[in-house]
């Protein structure tokens, strides 16, 4: 399970984020980027953040540490902005926090260099999780202390929005033409050779165990949170073996 903390102060909204993530302080004295269960995109966005973030970390990528943040909606009462108040009011209970990388710069593909090996690993990983949100328009990559960090895995694994069609959906190719790192000659063959064998059933079981039960309850077609955890495992396991040959748009 992810480490648990309690949100103690809402500092400010992060203006760039479509889902209105906020900066908060917690009882462990940490400062976190908080993503809310009450946001329009709902709790599946948060599940995707946990599954893909924790998988990425275990495959050796740099990802901000994730925690659960318990929110008392009372925290929102003093907020001057109606939108923020509504969001906090709708998000009582378990939410997601990620370490705030203070001073990080947004990655700009025209301003920074990435080597072919690292570009290959990131593009391969995004193909695995079907990330549609790492384009040059919106890279969702941060430069922090001279290194590249991955953030924002909310718009991934599209198949979890329609479980009956998941197998067919996960068999589809990945179009990397607009990927933020497409211009760095990503070495996909080396990335696949190294990473694909490491995406095992055991690793995925470890990763899905990190998803809070509260975000898995009452999913139509699943009796228990663990059934749903297994459903998250299957498409990723199947895709890891074949996705290298199904990445389109990279020369
Ligand atoms: N851990 C972090 N440390 C520092 N800054 C962050 C962190 N996470 C997010 N940010 C900043 O906040 C912005 C919004 O975060 P994020 O992309 O995760 O939110 P989002 O609502 O999913 O965004 P969108 O869907 O618009 O891409 C990022 O572009 C980045 O500038
Ligand atoms: Mg983003």
TrEMBL record:
Pfam families in UniProt: HipA_2 (PF20613)
HipA-like kinase domain residues: 12-240
Name of this protein: HipA-like kinase domain-containing protein
Organism: Streptomyces aquilus
Lineage: Bacteria, Bacillati, Actinomycetota, Actinomycetes, Kitasatosporales
């Amino acid at each position: 399970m992810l480490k648990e903390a309690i949100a103690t102060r809402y500092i400010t909204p992060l203006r760039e984020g479509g889902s209105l993530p906020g900066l908060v302080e917690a009882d462990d004295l940490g400062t976190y980027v908080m993503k809310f269960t009450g946001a329009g995109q709902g709790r599946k966005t948060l599940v995707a953040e946990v599954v893909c973030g924790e998988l990425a970390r275990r495959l050796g990528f740099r990802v901000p540490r994730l925690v659960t943040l318990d929110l008392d909606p009372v925290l929102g009462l003093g907020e001057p902005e109606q939108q923020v108040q509504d969001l906090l009011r709708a998000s009582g209970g378990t939410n997601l926090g990620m370490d705030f990388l203070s001073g990080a710069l947004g990655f700009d593909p025209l301003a920074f260099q990435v080597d072919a090996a690292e570009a290959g690993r990131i593009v391969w990983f995004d193909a695995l999780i079907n990330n549609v949100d790492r384009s040059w328009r919106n890279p969702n990559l941060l430069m922090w202390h001279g290194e590249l960090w991955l953030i924002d895995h909310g718009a991934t694994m599209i198949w979890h929005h329609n479980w009956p069609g998941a197998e067919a959906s996960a068999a589809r190719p990945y179009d990397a033409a607009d990927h933020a790192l497409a211009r760095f000659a990503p070495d996909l063959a080396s990335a696949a050779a190294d990473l694909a064998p490491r995406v095992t059933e055991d690793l995925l079981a470890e990763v899905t165990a990190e998803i809070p039960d509260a975000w898995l309850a009452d999913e139509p077609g699943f009796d228990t949170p663990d059934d749903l955890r297994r459903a998250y495992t299957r498409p990723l396991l199947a895709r890891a073996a074949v996705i290298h040959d199904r990445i389109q748009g990279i020369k």
